[in-house]
UniProtKB/TrEMBL annotation:
Limits of the N-acetyltransferase domain: 3-166
Protein name: Putative acetyltransferase
UniProt-listed PANTHER family: AMINOALKYLPHOSPHONATE N-ACETYLTRANSFERASE-RELATED-RELATED
Species of provenance: Gimesia alba
GO terms for MF: acyltransferase activity, transferring groups other than amino-acyl groups
Keywords for this protein: Acyltransferase, Transferase
Classification via InterPro entries: Acyl_CoA_acyltransferase, Bact_Acetyltransf, GNAT_dom
């Protein structure tokens, strides 16, 4: 299997959303919120996670790179950058199950890092959850350093929401 990397095209968006929702099952912050508080405003965590991909595409579509095998999308990485601060951000990366653990994520990350170098940026930033052992290993192997751990807190804003949470 030879993976090809190409630029994002708007018609890729729905496929990227589907890949992302499947890939983030069990490791999404939004899914954790839903477990605690239930569905919010009629939208489940999958809708919110797919919305993150849509936001990536609106913010900097030229920073999304598509991984293909035999002209089929198998994964992607989204990036955006702040030229003033010199920082490149990697908000999302996902692959279909059959293509995980084969070094394709590493290739896409290397591609994104080279993209940032071409933009003359100084740093690249990526985030992951503590339980993502694969991501933690991969990122450090590419030179990323853990800077700080973050804890996510959520507070219900109405008494009804507090009472409804399991």
């Amino acid at each position: 299997m030879i993976m090809k990397i190409r630029p994002y095209q708007p018609e890729d968006l729905q496929t990227l959303k589907e890949i992302t929702v499947e890939a983030f099952q069990g490791v999404s912050i939004d899914e954790g919120i839903e477990r605690e508080f239930g569905i919010i405003n009629g939208h489940d965590w999958k809708w919110r996670k797919a919305g993150h991909v849509e936001a990536d595409a609106k913010r900097e579509p030229e920073g999304i790179f598509i991984a293909e095998i035999d002209d089929q999308i198998v994964g992607y990485i989204s990036t955006w950058h702040d030229a003033e601060t010199g920082i490149g951000y990697i908000p999302n990366m996902a692959f279909i199950p059959e293509c995980r653990g084969q070094g394709m994520g590493r290739k896409l990350l290397e591609y994104a890092l080279e993209h940032f170098r071409q933009l003359n940026l100084s740093l690249a930033k990526i985030e992951t959850l503590e339980q993502n052992a694969i991501g933690n290993h991969l990122y450090t192997s590419l030179g990323f350093q853990e800077i700080v751990k973050q804890v996510h807190f959520v507070a219900p804003l109405s008494p009804a929401a507090r009472e409804e949470s399991p």
